[in-house]
Amino acid sequence: MLDFAIIGGGPAGLTAGLYATRGGLKNVTMFEKGLPGGQITQSSEIENYPGQLEVVTGMELMDKWPQQCQKFGLKHDMSEVTRVSKNGDTFQLTLGSGETVEAKSVLVATGSVPKAAGIKGEAEFFGKGVSTCATCDGFFYKGKDVVVLGGGDTAVEEAIFLANICKTVYIVHRRDQFRASPHEVEKMKKFDNIVPVMNHTTEEIVGDKMGVTGVVVKDKESGETKTLEAMGCFVFVGRDVLNQCLQQEDGSYLCDLNDSGEVIVNLKMETSLKGLFAAGDIRIDAPKQVVCAAGDGAIAGIGAISYLQ
Length: 309
Prior knowledge:
The structure is a single chain. By secondary structure, this protein is of the alpha/beta class. It has seven helices and 18 strands. The chain folds into two domains: 4-114 and 239-308, FAD/NAD(P)-binding domain, CATH 3.50.50; 130-235, FAD/NAD(P)-binding domain. The protein has helices spanning 11-22, 58-62, 65-70, 134-137, 153-163, 182-189, 290-308; strands at residues 4-7, 28-31, 75-77, 81-87, 90-95, 100-103, 106-108, 112-114, 130-131, 145-149, 168-172, 194-197, 200-208, 211-219, 225-229, 232-235, 239-241, 276-278. Helix 1 (11-22) packs parallel to helix 7 (290-308) and helix 5 (153-163) runs parallel beside helix 6.
């Protein structure tokens, strides 16, 4: 019987393990089928993590985290958790092998992944001009022209963020109106350097060996195509929340989710089910930043100790 089971080995899961074990829990296991570190390990440059003066890769930033967390007793199990259920006061974790593990408390920190737009050139230039995080990568395009793909709240919010850094921000949306909230759209209209490109589909992201040089868009009414010259392309067409392990055999979910599939939590990272916590990008209103996910994990780790006591 585990005291605390952590599902996911990114910044949230690792930090939860660190705080839980250092705080006195003796039997804590983190389930992560791959190498710990999370999505941030795929980033080529990190320069906004507090206390990290040098620009490093995501892999370099996360390099010592597992070792530090395991120093206090956190165990790493490379099994995949396919389902979490609860019977009375005990949680059951079903592993990919079919085995089950019991735990007194559980943290789900499986995160989310950006949806791909499925555009020609998107995969080829990912990390070489194509990004899914303006906060992470916007600074590298200071004074340059960029393109934002999408029409929802995230796309509009990130376009506003980029407008404070970049020369011109083209925001391409396939409809004649944005899906974002009217408040965000009104805020965006105040920026003269944000250029909406409405009723256009994105046909291709083009570039050379140095990276992205432009985005080819097509007018849905006339059928005409044109190339928006830009050095960066930010894709915000939604995210897929990795909540599959919370789904039960009858199709319901173990705790409350919002319409986007994100786990609803309070400020203590507690879900609607006692003993079950969620942290990082899987939770509602997640800023999707390493430092924030780590903070979530610390809160959840401390919360698990309080719950068990």
